[in-house]
Amino acid sequence: MTLAKTFRQRLSERVGKFARSHKQLFFSIIILFGAICLYLLSVALKKPPAKEQVVVLAPLVEVQQLEKKDIQMIVTGYGTVQAKVEVEIVPQVSGKVISVNPQFKAGGFIGAGQEILKIDPRDYSLAVQQAEAGVADAQVKLDMEKAEASVALAEWHQLHPGTEPDSPLVLREPQIRQAEAMLDSAKAALATAQLSLDRTSITLPLDVRIVSESVDLGQFCTVGQSIGSAYGVGAVEIEIPLQDKELRWFDTPDEEPATNGNAKSSSGSEVLVKATFAGVENTWKGFVARSTGQVDTKSRLISVVVEVPHPFDGSDSKAPLLPGLYVEAKIQGNVLKNAFAVPRDAIRGSDEVWVVNDNILHVKNLDIISTDKEYAYVTEGLSDKEAIVTSSLDVVVDDMAVRVKEQ
């Protein structure tokens, strides 16, 4: 007992001594211990949180109401502009070039009937004079034969009064016919010589733009030598490849021969041609002229030819529609009665749409008649003013609940 009492006294003395020498640390330990006790007590006395029911919201979708209406079908295609008329300029007579039109160069315009170049005409003028002399000589021979026939007839009447010659030789009819044939031959030779003289002035029967030229002043040209090329500026053509099912939406001219042998014709659908030229989008008006009448064996497409008249007049555009230009052609097709234009973004897969009725989503399959860049066109499967979903959803189940976004 004495030993235990002694130990407690020594422990008390040491704790008191430690407390006196480390008073600040001692009080810090006491405060920390009290804080821990208070925290544990508050945790033990705290009430558990009340459970709240989680509300799951239906997916939010955007919708668009569709209206039934008459829609003009537009068939869009692309092609390259080509000249409707292309010509090689070839002289029909030989000779030295003595004059050249200043516009006879690449890019130049030459009107119908304007002289392109002139070949030395002197040889051909002499040929005309010689042919004229031949005509005059043949005419004299014919006149002489007719005169001799008149004399022979008078002599017959003197020798055989009251009778007519019984032989054509008496009236020199064979000689007259021969003289008339010689005169006709001389006139034909004169016409040929005059034609050759006229051909020394080279012209074209239509307004053209020169593509290339390969002759100059003083050069000798031969018959059949190409001296340049040009194309007519009256019209250009564009060959547009299309799928055969697209041909049903517009008209092409009827080119089948009629029963009397004359070709029937009708006007094709109007076409709006667009192209960017010099950094500006330009438009021209044209029409469907014909189809090529055959299907491409590789692409399985059939082409229609669009004609644009007066591509250089600038009536529809300040820029010319030049051959070689790549263009977009919008063919103004027939009217589709009582149809819906469904945005392409609303088409799911190949032919499905999502329809919302009373916040319930339904999946519908459509019979799509035609499509373009923006819309798919249908006549059945939808109701007027029906709302279709235009936004996307991760998971779609038929008859699922949705929320419609307020527009």
Fold and architecture overview:
This protein has 407 residues and is an alpha+beta fold. It has 4 helices and 23 strands. 26% of the residues lie in helices and 33% in strands. The strands form 5 sheets. A 6-stranded antiparallel barrel has the order 3-12-15-14-13-16. A 5-stranded antiparallel sheet has the order 2-21-17-18-22, with no helix packed on it. It has a 4-stranded antiparallel sheet with strand order 4-11-9-6, with no helix packed on it. Among the domains are: 32 residues, no CATH class; 80 residues, conserved putative lor/sdh protein from methanococcus maripaludis s2 fold (Beta Barrel); 79 residues.
| Arrangement of strands in the largest sheet | 3-12-15-14-13-16
Question: Helicity level, as a percent range?
Answer: 25-40%
| Low-confidence parts | 257-265
CATH architecture of the domain at 61-72 and 337-404: Beta Barrel
The secondary structure category is alpha+beta
Largest sheet: 6 strands, antiparallel, barrel
Instruction: Name the CATH class of the domain at 61-72 and 337-404.
Output: Mainly Beta
Strand content: 25-35%
Shape from CA axes? elongated
Oligomerization status of the protein chains: single chain
Radius of gyration: 51 Å
Query: What's the helix-strand series?
Result: HHEEEEEEEHHEEEEEEEEEEEEEEEE
